[in-house]
Design a protein that fits this description.
The complex is a heterodimer of chains A (273) and B (299).
Chain A: H1 2-12, H2 16-47, H3 50-60, H4 65-74, H5 81-97, H6 100-107, H7 111-144, H8 150-154, H9 158-181, H10 184-204, H11 214-217, H12 247-270
Helix pairs in contact in A: 1-7, 2-3, 2-5, 2-7, 4-7, 4-9, 5-9, 7-9, 7-12, 9-10, 9-12
Chain B: E1 3-14, E2 17-28, E3 32-36, H1 43-50, E4 58-63, H2 70-73, E5 76-79, H3 91-102, H4 109-115, H5 131-143, E6 149-153, H6 161-176, E7 180-185, H7 188-194, E8 197-202, E9 205-211, H8 212-215, E10 219-226, H9 229-238, E11 242-248, E12 251-256, H10 262-271, E13 276-283, H11 286-298
Helix pairs in contact in B: 4-5
The chains are: A mainly alpha (273), B alpha/beta (299).
The structure holds adenosine-5'-triphosphate (ATP) and magnesium ion.
Adenosine-5'-triphosphate (ATP) binds next to β2 and α1 of chain B.
Chain lengths: 273, 299
Amino acid sequence: MIRLLKIELQKFISYKAFWFMLIFYAALLAIMIFGIPGLIDYIAEKSGEPSKFRIFKAIVFNFPDVWQNITYVASARYFIKIVLGIIVIIIITNEFSYLTIRSNIINGFSKKDFLLAKIELIIVLALFSTLIVFLSGLYLGFLHSASTSIGDVFGKMIFLLGYFIEITSYLLFCLLLGIIFKKTGITFVVHFVYLIVEPIFDYKLNDSITPFLPLNAINNIIRTPNTSLIKIKTPDFNYDFQEFISITDVSICLVYAMLFVVLSYFILKRRDI
Amino acid sequence: MEKVLTIKDLNKNYGKIHAVKNLNLEIDKGCVFGILGPNGSGKTTTLGIILSVINAKSGSFSWFEEPNSKENRKRIGAILEQPIFYPYLSAVKNLKIVANIKEVSDSDIERVLKIVELYDRRDSKFKTYSYGMKQRLAIASALLGNPEVLIFDEPTNGLDPKGIAEIRELIIKIAKEGITIILASHLLDEVQKTCTHVAVLKSGEKLFSGKVSDVLNVSDSLEIASNNLELLSLALNEYKNVLDLKKEHNQLIIKLKEGTSAFNVNSYLVGKGIVVTHLAEKKKSLENQFLELLKERDD
Ligand SMILES: Nc1ncnc2c1ncn2[C@@H]1O[C@H](COP(=O)(O)OP(=O)(O)OP(=O)(O)O)[C@@H](O)[C@H]1O
Ligand SMILES: [Mg+2]
């Protein structure tokens, strides 16, 4: 396991584009998370009713809700995680365009080793992303929360695990696309087209089916943000915000993750490289 | 004799193109085996299959008399068709990846880079190399970790004459160490100069295989000269083993009956009191012979 990851990292340790994009991603993620309070302050100044917004800020970043709120923002499907997806697409399609997958196999990788090494890299990227979200959450939470009891701080941290599963599954989806289409440009196009097309299906299809669409499945673990305020219901505003992570959502997502891996494997296995 | 590679009834199709047709091959340990064939005859496809990057349609192969596995490939050093490396990495970093995949020590990298004379450029990125340098790096990579078998697909492709000579010398030197070498080439000359055994492929089919000396080295004419060509010519005309005699510039070209060698001719002439100033076996043009071999099957 470690050997494969080590080899995988050796491939990118001097690849400037990889580091550039990774730093770009990390910066974007951090700016976004840390930008929210600033944005709220800005709106507060403009609104003329700053105190109302201060309360809002406090509840958004209040432990334990902060975990749900920031993982919700960080995992949004049309947002920064796409940068991470692009990194994965470049990494896998490079192996086809440079033909290096071929030399890896000739030198003694099995196709399984090749795929495992990529999956390990994806897990490392997802962990890296989760770490940034975790550190940001801790910082913002301690800055804005009234209560910093252990129970509150760690209360909804399960959302970080949900976030990790979502990101990993999404990156496995990108990996599969790269393996199918091989060319970087084509894979990008297919990826973006699919991001646009699936919501159309989502709109047309019956609600009982839509949770099983792949992108929905890998985005449904964290469906909504939540704060104590939102729990207040009025007759015109009667919406159930997500409180917990549902085992069903996680299961559907994991089944997809497994499907992406299995398909990737069989395509690699059958193909001449 | 221990078999390094056994290929049984191998087939590969690309649509209608039958790239490899019922190929059977056995390669013994320690030989330098040439796979000779014109462009598109299926050499690279065959090597791709035995290196597990191309899936065969049917048939089987085995390395070292064992079932196919990635562990077997770690005992083989190979270049297939073109040098393949990560373009943005230096020679050393590329070879480190190769060494780690093969599970051999990094410390061998210096040795192989020195062999191909790339040690001074070891920290340059692969993409900044000239084609010949890339080819040399591929050879270095194949040599990494002292594999038991080396596979070279057109190894001198893109090299300058000095490089070609060096690589051929290197192949011969490696072969002397007892390492088995499989060399695919469309150049007869290359196979003839380096190989002990050869299989000739055409349109995916094996036409012939055997020892190079049996197939390609048939010597059937002699160049001969002396101070008095008239006298020489008369004497040779009387010699019963001469089939044909031609005068060319300042020498004679004679064709001999099978089994007659330069030694026999020279002894005969010495007996006649003629001293030759030049005597050379002239090999039948390999090019012609190769073409003949391919043509025979067309008829
Ligand atoms: N990926 C492919 N798709 C379709 N046809 C292919 C493919 N690879 C090889 N072929 C065909 O298979 C046949 C054998 O090709 P191969 O590359 O094995 O020849 P070769 O003997 O190595 O030739 P060369 O001396 O030019 O390297 C050719 O007719 C070629 O067109
Ligand atoms: Mg070829």
